[in-house]
Amino acid sequence: MNILLTSVGRRSYFVNYFKEVLGETGQVHVSNSSSLTPAFTIADRYVVTPLIYDEEYILFLISYCKRNQIRMLVSLFDVDLPILSKNIKMFDEIGVKVIVSDESVIDICNDKILTYKFMIENGFNTPKTYSDLEDALNAISDDEMKYPVIVKPRWGMGSIGVYQADNEAELKVFYKKTLTQIKNSYLKYESNKNLNESVIIQERLSGQEYGLDVINDLNRSHQNTIVKMKHAMRSGETDCAEIVNNVALKKLGACLSQKLGHIGNLDVDVFVVDNKPYILEMNARFGGGYPFSHIAGVNLPKALISWVNNKEISESLLKENFGVLAYKDIILTQAGLTESISCLDMDHSLVINQIKSKAEILNVLQTFDNVFKPPIAEKVRDINAYANKLFENAYVFVASKDKILGFVALYANDYSNKTAYIPYIGVMQEARNLKIGRKLLDICYKTAVAQGMKFMKLEVQKENLIACNFYKSNGFVLQGQASNKSFYMIREL
Q1: Is a pLDDT exceeding 50 seen at residue 348?
Q2: Scanning 37, 84, 355, 416, which has the fewest C-beta atoms within 10 Å of its C-beta?
């Protein structure tokens, strides 16, 4: 049985959990939108995917699952969940079980305003929450809420854009700062639904914080709730916790399971204030606190694999040992990528590398000369001098599969305007169906961002409608005329 963990990031321990269960009976595949992913180093196979909100993302996963006989898919990232849930039938049709809850459940968990409304409607305690700055200020003025308050993204995870405001001046500043951070991070995708209400102001709770792993089976039936007393946090994740037998919080998890009807794990943050539990947030996936449950004897990966194979599990499989105290440690992982930036397609045969010698760059320019209209040599006049210019000032990447099939050049040194520029991007005619152009743009995007650029720009011939549509589908918009026969297109990074 082969499984795929998507958006795996730094969750190497999850890869190991599933590998331990499968042993020699299957492989653990992992994916992420960046090749610089620590968990890639220990998986059986890995693949770099399009970005989650790319129109090709689901089709890419479907194709990968077919090729590699994937039977179960588990995502480890909130942003992934609504896309997977929306397209779950496509995976069902090819025999892949996606461990994801219904769209309505994902919406409630990902949207903190919907979380708040769900809690109120179902009688759970939860901190007062507002999505309008004026409403929050009025609530404070009417003594319905007091400083300090927490300012954070309505759709988000971790510590991005999270601040504590101790007074009105700080509240207004942090509100604007959080909104700016939303616009400049992956949070902008979900927040685009309603950018004006993408920041929330929440009552700050003071009390003991707990984390719950509320485990349901694939039929949404509650199996157990593991309670973790948090002793330390780091960047929004639990850093140290103890497994405790808190009967009240176990009952709370069972009730939450019944009301919500999720599938698999539900990661819940709870504060106990004056002996009353307040539910702060929920994540309908494996959370950063699950390893504490696992080290205490719970084995949800094994349970999931058994359920997908229509096998019953023993009660002890999801039973925790109380009193287990654990810490997260930091382990340095060598990625094995030094001189080149690499990106593999789904069968690992297409490789994108950076080339750094003048001779290699000249060879690529000569190879692709007639791919362009007008040819490179005609446009730059002295192709040798141009190769030297790229060698000294630009990044040059090539896509190879037995031979070079595509290349791109990128200038990322305009630090005044913070605009990266792509003078050439080309793909051989016989390779136009491998989505090489999209992969080359993706590596340019990552490189430009790493160099502090805010925009990426290129020139396209007016008559080349295929290229124009391709760039538009990848986030570029028309900026202005470059010549009588071409115009500039630009993309915000």
Answers
A1: no
A2: 416
